[in-house]
Write a structure and sequence with these properties.
By secondary structure, this protein is an all-alpha fold. It contains 19 helices and 2 strands. The protein has one domain: Up-down Bundle (Growth Hormone, Chain: A), CATH 1.20.1250.20.
């Protein structure tokens, strides 16, 4: 439709169909990468600023360069985080943000399937930017009411949930399954790149006017949100390009009228999806290779929540991500504080050191995608990295604060193992399930499936930082025991799929 073409695209010159397919796919890859980079950049500053909202004031000098007396131990803290309950208050900020994010995520996927993704993503980014900046304005407006910061976190979390279903749906629309793990592993590095940029920007201001740690990322994401409205092309059909099929090659909108007879064990699942798609479905595994085509070009309808849950693999990967994201987001929100506490270094340097965890996460996500593409075993790849993550976290806690070299090296290794499965599940696995064979090519399931998986994971992401805030008062060792236990539980939820993949490999 002509009105689906973004205004910025209408004025650009159009090349041949083949050239446009390649150009647009590269363009969408880069554009959505930048979009979600900004989402993570805007949610990272809180973890950096925690180090100055409450700190050891005996090591801090005031504006005149003078130290305060020992009995004035909270003069440098930001009220209301200057009391003995500061850890619980900081944990509450994480909790309300992430729970608002997780709960709204389920609704976001439902809404995203039913409206133009360009409007949905653009509006979410602009509002996220305004709310991120508003948190930082609390510094300039000298606001010390905990209710203000909690309200900002709640509403901000709601609008942050617009990002993931939208960008994954865009990528799923433009890219088929061929080499999807590698492509999305590289693409998913936006999470770590955003964390790194957020840490560096926040770290540059944290020891001075910490409000800028939030205001500047807020301005950046809101500005890019305006560009999304003008230039984003969420679907190949909007600009007359060909569609990718499930094997990663381009297909036209005409379809074959042949259809295989579905296996008997799939009858119940077929019946539940029949009213959504208007045609049959097949396969009872998330990575089935059986090929079916729609009998006729019926209009696509958005899939229902319960039908999405019945897609094989959705529940298991969702529960796995619950614990995997719990671990990852505890590092995201508490690592700078942990480094500062264990090494007695200032907040800016702790923020800089924490970025090595995200650098390791970039390579972990890419490696997971590459291995899963080569082996065709997404679950097995996740299980392998989760298995190795537990001892790596234990070693990091023991030796990560010995010196700078140990801190950097173990941070890289820890990020590699922890973020690899998380990255694979939220990208390639979500896209695989959102274009599952039982959907018969219906593209109106990507955002819903993605929202279910990431929404479930985000509930874990909310619980992790809260538990860390509570447990941290008893010692950081206990925090790491909690993280290791969560990692093991995450792995256990994939045991069935892992066993099935191994048996299939043995048969072949």
């Amino acid at each position: 439709m002509a009105n689906a073409v973004p205004p910025g695209i209408r004025v650009l010159p159009q090349g041949s169909c083949g050239d446009r397919n390649v150009t647009y796919r590269l363009y969408i890859l880069i554009f959505t990468f930048l979009c979600y980079t900004c989402y993570h950049m805007s949610r990272k500053p809180i973890s950096v600023v925690k180090s100055v909202l409450h700190r050891n004031c005996s090591k801090v000098t005031d504006d005149t360069g003078a130290h305060h007396y020992d009995n004035d131990t909270t003069w440098c803290d930001w009220e209301p985080f200057d009391g003995s309950d500061y850890s619980q208050l900081l944990g509450t900020l994480d909790l309300v943000y992430l729970f608002a994010y997780a709960i709204t995520m389920f609704c976001s996927g439902h809404i995203a399937e039913r409206m133009n993704l360009r409007y949905f993503l653009s509006g979410g980014m602009v509002m996220t930017g305004l709310l991120t900046a508003a948190f930082g304005m609390g510094y300039f407006w000298n606001i010390h009411n905990i209710g203000f910061y909690i309200a900002i976190q709640v509403v901000g979390g709601m609008f942050q949930s617009t990002g993931w279903p939208a960008v994954v749906a865009c990528m799923g629309n433009w890219y088929g399954k061929g080499k999807r793990g590698l492509i999305m592993g590289i693409w998913n590095s936006h999470t770590s790149v955003g964390n790194i940029l957020g840490s560096l920007i926040a770290g540059a201001f944290v020891n001075g006017a910490w409000g800028w740690s939030f205001v500047l990322p807020g301005i950046i994401i809101a500005g890019l949100g305006v560009l999304v409205f003008v230039f984003l092309v969420p679907d190949p059909k909007d600009v007359g390009c060909t569609l990718p099929d499930h094997q990663g090659t381009s297909v036209t909108t005409s379809v074959d009228k042949t259809q295989e007879i579905e296996p008997e064990e799939n009858k119940q699942l077929l019946a539940s999806l029949h009213n959504v798609n208007g045609y049959g479905a097949e396969s009872n595994e998330y990575n089935s290779s059986t090929n079916l085509v729609k009998p006729e070009a019926t209009p696509e309808k958005a899939i229902g929540f319960l039908s999405a849950l019945r897609i094989p693999g959705v529940v298991e990967f969702s529960l796995c991500l619950f614990f995997a994201k719990l671990v990852s987001y505890t590092f995201l929100f508490w690592l700078p504080k942990y480094i500062s506490s264990k090494s007695n270094i200032d907040a800016e340097k702790a923020a800089d050191l924490s970025t090595f965890f995200d650098v390791g996460g970039i390579f972990g996500g890419i490696t997971a995608g590459l291995i899963s593409d080569y082996t065709g075993a997404r679950a097995s790849t996740c299980v392998l990295q989760l298995m190795l993550a537990a001892p790596v976290m234990y070693i990091y806690n023991l030796y990560g604060s010995i010196d700078l070299a140990h801190s950097i090296g173990l941070s890289l290794l820890c990020g590699f193992m922890v973020n690899g499965p998380y990255a694979l599940i939220t990208t390639a696995v979500s896209a695989d399930l959102g274009t599952h064979k039982v959907l018969q090519g219906n593209s109106k399931a990507l955002a819903t499936v993605t929202a279910i998986i990431d929404g479930t994971g985000s509930i874990g992401a909310a619980i992790g930082p809260l538990l860390a805030g509570i447990i941290e008062t008893t010692g950081w060792n206990n925090v790491f025991y909690m993280l290791i236990g969560s990692d093991i539980l995450s792995m256990l939820f994939l045991v069935r799929l892992f066993g099935k993949e191994i048996l299939e490999k043995v048969r072949r």
